[in-house]
Amino acid sequence: MQVDIRELNERIQRESAFVDVLSNEMDKVIVGQSHMVERLLIGLLSNGHILLEGVPGLAKTLAINTLAKCVDAQFSRIQFTPDLLPADLIGTMIYNQKEEKFSIRKGPIFANFVLADEINCAPAKVQSALLEAMQEKQVTIGDQTFKLPNPFLVLATQNPIDQEGTYPLPEAQMDRFMLKVVISYPTKEEEKKIIASNISKAGMASPNVVLKPEDILAARNVVKDVYMDEKIERYIVDIVFATRFPKENRLEKFAPLISYGGSPRASINLALAAKAYAFIKRRGYVIPEDVRAVCLDVMRHRIGLTYEAEAENITTEYIINELLNAVEVP
Question: Closest by alpha carbon to 69, among 204, 223, 219?
């Protein structure tokens, strides 16, 4: 099928105009952290969940709360703790003595934006309940299954420095997150702005509603129309296959360092994220730079390191950068 790139490009530029408006509203509240905000938009436009990793106090909770206000969506925050039960997350059946029957009380998972704070603090039972919600977009309470609202986005946070009383997320659940975003400290200038906004009499700015949930669903359909050439698809497959079979890609030195590579979900999410990134940049087609821009966040939690790699302090980020330099760019 022949695609008119010029016409598609003009359409995408029109349809993506809201991205700048949404980003400006987010910037009113979130100082700096442009990378995190951009990744939140990618997840939102690609129907993908996001795992944020960073020390406390870097506006992780504030960012998703602000996004929910801008989109006029339902926001729910769940603090994960070792004593959390699946019922605390998805809801439970409660016995009504007057009517002598059980009724269902839905839990906080029934929202458009769900913040799973300190996700690695909850035990396996809670993780499995969240996994069904993330993958199937539904939950089961008793013998009934309920669909979750649409759009539905899980933003999970984990603290990399506090490892006491935590449960490492299983690989199957990590793979369900489209992106794993590592957040760093703000710059000195940004920190001065943060202090000023928090101590002023006026207080922090409040974002305006600029979108409806229906607008996000419509934008997702437009993102799927962003053109991706067959060469770009092959490039994505080459990157993912290089994580599985480094020897075949002239990367013999990484063979003893990688225990497992990216799954087919990695290829799918890399393609979706690249399309969403092109959309945010107001372009109707994907270029190799789009793939490279999102590759680190899509792949960093999908590559397993051997004990040898950990002993040598080799990170997945280092391996991904080396792979990107080695794989031929179309």
Answer: 204
